[in-house]
Write a structure and sequence with these properties.
201 residues; 5 helices; 6-stranded mixed β-sheet; 32% strand; alpha/beta
């Protein structure tokens, strides 16, 4: 499995491209303004984008979505937030977008595939009500649920700090300690480190 990370201004979002070398299927986890770079990597590996997996519906995680054959995937509880994207984008100097149509609504424990690899959905509300993480092998793509030694903010619509802490304890801290966490912002961490060093928990 090939993993490529793209960090995008102005909020330094992490976007993750996973490519299965055997099947040439790829998924993009979150989608800021990275379209040309993504296309170049897909062409380099001769891969096709199967899914755009959204960890949640905040504008900075969806601003790069354009018309595509890839299926756009999100939890239904974040649809109201997604639909408000153009309220916030101009304040960050990002052009307004056509609100993407969600092709697949996911729920906790749903499984998607990329080649022979399974992508498990973990519903982790708290940052938003529809926030999810995606687990692939020993890699967890956590969006804004948990960061290195921090957690997602809970003062926006749909945020609930106690719910977020509960999600992290029950869904993330129960994973093997060597599980690598790839967050929506900042550098990677792992479950063991966060258990010891995340002061919010």
């Amino acid at each position: 499995m090939i993993l490529k990370t793209f960090r995008e201004p102005p909020i330094d979002n992490n976007n993750y491209l996973l490519i299965d070398e055997e099947s040439k299927e790829a998924v993009l986890i979150d989608c800021s303004a990275v379209e040309p770079k993504i296309r170049e990597v897909l062409e380099e590996y001769g891969a096709g984008l199967k899914y755009i997996l959204l960890t949640h519906g905040h504008f900075d995680h969806v601003a790069g979505i354009r018309q595509t054959d890839a299926k756009i995937v999100m939890h239904k509880d974040d649809l109201p937030i997604l639909n408000q994207s153009n309220i916030y984008l101009p304040a960050f100097g990002i052009p307004e977008i056509t609100i993407p149509k969600i092709d697949i609504y996911i729920n906790d424990n749903d499984v998607l595939t990329i080649g022979k690899n399974e992508i498990k959905v973990l519903h982790t509300p708290g940052h938003t009500q529809g926030g999810v993480c995606y687990l692939v092998d020993n890699m967890l793509f956590s969006g804004d649920t948990v960061f290195r030694e921090s957690v997602g903010r809970c003062d926006l619509e749909g945020g609930d700090f106690l719910q977020l802490v509960d999600s992290i304890k029950k869904k993330i801290f129960t994973l093997p300690e060597e599980t690598v966490i790839y967050p929506g912002h900042g550098r990677a961490t792992d479950v063991a480190w966060e258990k010891l060093h995340n002061s919010f928990m």
